[in-house]
Design brief:
The complex is a heterodimer of chains A (about 170) and B (about 300).
Chain A (H helix, E strand, L loop, with lengths): L1 H17 L8 H13 L1 H18 L6 H17 L16 H26 L5 H30 L14
Chain B lengths: L1 H31 L3 H81 L1 H5 L2 E11 L4 E5 L12 E5 L7 E10 L4 E5 L7 E5 L5 E6 L7 E4 L12 E4 L2 E3 L5 E3 L5 E9 L9 E6 L8 E5 L6
Antiparallel strand pairs in B: 1-2, 1-14, 2-5, 3-4, 3-14, 4-5, 6-7, 6-9, 7-8, 8-13, 9-12, 10-11, 12-13
Helix pairs in contact in B: 1-2
The chains are: A mainly alpha (about 170), B alpha+beta (about 300).
């Protein structure tokens, strides 16, 4: 929860100053992906929920919308990496390769950004889809992916992979 | 298996609970807006995070300012270099334009001379450009890019634009050497040159020779003390050009030479007046000239 709080503050206070342009990278989605990779689906859902609520509250937006999207992104990543019941997991290399982790960040960011854009368009308070795609969605995905190159290893160190005897990650 | 089932159930319960919480918050958010419990949550979150946001901004601001200052400096330097380059290009273009304008002005003066001067009406003429100018204390000659191929012959007078005169052109000198496509012109400032001259609008005659102590100025010699000459009178060719070897070459009368700038009569025993004449032509910037084809070529 401390990480959620710190990253939310950084995302809304520091990033707009440090990153030029009208969009900022999504630090919280990187955290959610990291938690999904290292701690499993429940922890990812809980982190996504908390991150979304905090972000929406700080932005005085519609509470719950971002939570749903962060949870969806976290659960998608968690189910992708989680071993099935019939698979014997090797304790030596349980984590996907860094490039795959980065790909998860890109997909998770896409889920969140497309979901937000779709919700705004459906609610009638968004910009045209083409504008959102060119000026918000793609730049956010790119910036988040670039920042994930630095932030992912740091967060993986903060939240190391821990498993139980049956191979499933231990939730935070 | 039992552990796995319990885990699945717990996971579903947790995720279901979180989903339900999210949807509840979303519904309440739509219903209440910024009022009620939702508003309280938002205000609470803002109140809690505001000091941290403020601290973060304070921490990052120096770095942002430093970055902006550095990038601004780099931008300013590159812009400075770009502007300097543009200035050089503009200066070069400006110089070219000024040169073209100057040439046009000179051509215009020569055109006026050919249209208004009786001399130009009497003789055919050909335009030329000065390709070489070697002015020094011993020899005042120029080379022009027209020679016998253009009908130029030795002895032909050469005139150049005279912007300061309403006569449009003034005498430069006389052709001394001719090749097929170039000619050498001895200037009237050459120490070996003497031009038979007269004051326009009168009967005063004399010989215009370079002033040895004042380069660029002519002395109108051999004018008797009794003659009346005043400053600002125009001096033109008289028609005959005696040279030091005793030969005489024809030079048409009426070609403007210059203006009388001073008349002195200091010594009563002196037979002649001291008259200084400033040529109309600026010999320091000769470019376009006109050769009057006075001498008939076979």
């Amino acid at each position: 929860m401390v990480a959620v709080f710190v990253l939310a503050v950084l995302q809304l206070s520091a990033m707009p100053q440090l990153i030029p342009g009208s969009v900022t990278p999504d630090l919280l989605v990187i955290l959610v992906v990291t938690i999904a990779l290292t701690r499993g689906a429940e922890a990812a859902a809980l982190t996504g929920f908390a991150a979304g609520v905090l972000l929406d509250a700080m932005l005085v937006g519609r509470l719950g919308l971002t939570s749903l999207l962060y949870m969806a992104a976290g659960l998608w990543v968690a189910y992708r990496v989680e071993p099935s019941d019939s698979v014997v997991v090797s304790p030596l290399s349980p984590m996907p390769r860094p490039a795959v982790q980065l790909l998860y960040v890109v997909v998770a960011t896409s889920i969140v950004q497309v979901g937000l854009a779709a919700a705004h368009v459906l609610l009638g308070d968004g910009y045209p889809v083409s504008f959102e795609l060119v000026n918000v969605i793609i730049p956010t995905i790119v910036e988040t992916a670039v920042l994930a190159l630095v932030l992912l290893p740091v967060l993986r160190r903060l939240f190391p992979y821990r498993t139980r005897a049956d191979g499933y990650p231990i939730a935070a | 298996m039992l552990i796995g089932k319990n885990r699945h159930l717990r996971r579903r319960a947790v995720i279901g609970l979180l989903l339900a919480a999210s949807l509840t918050l979303l519904t309440l958010s739509f219903r209440q807006g910024s009022e009620g419990a939702i508003g309280a949550i938002q205000r609470g979150a803002l109140a809690i995070t505001a000091p941290f946001s403020s601290a973060t901004t304070r921490v990052t601001k120096p770095f942002v300012d430093a970055w902006n200052w550095t990038s601004g400096l780099v931008d300013a330097r590159s812009e400075n270099a770009k502007l300097k380059n543009e200035l050089e290009i503009a200066n070069a273009a400006n110089q070219t334009l000024q040169q073209v304008q100057s040439e046009l002005a000179q051509d215009n003066l020569l055109l006026h001379f050919t249209q208004n001067s009786q001399i130009a009406a009497q003789y055919p003429f050909v335009g030329a450009t000065v390709t070489r100018q070697v002015p020094n204390a011993y020899s005042q000659t120029i080379t022009i890019n027209v020679g016998s191929g253009g009908g130029v012959a030795v002895g032909d007078p050469v005139v150049a634009p005279a912007g300061s005169s309403n006569l449009f052109a003034g005498l430069v000198g006389r052709v001394t050497t001719v090749t097929a496509n170039a000619s050498s012109v001895e200037l009237i400032l050459d120490p070996d040159t003497a031009v038979s001259a007269r004051v326009q609008g009168g009967t005063v005659r004399g010989v215009a020779v370079p002033n040895p102590g004042n380069p660029g100025v002519l002395d109108l010699q051999m004018v008797p003390q009794a003659e009346q000459v005043k400053p600002n009178q125009v001096v033109v060719t008289a028609g005959l050009q005696p040279n030091r070897q005793g030969l005489q070459a024809l030079l048409p009368a009426g070609i403007p030479i210059g203006l009388v700038t001073s008349v002195s009569q200091s010594d009563l025993n002196d037979v002649f007046k001291g008259i200084e004449v400033t040529p109309f032509v600026d010999f320091g910037s000769l470019d376009r000239v006109l050769v009057l084809k006075v001498v008939k070529t076979p």
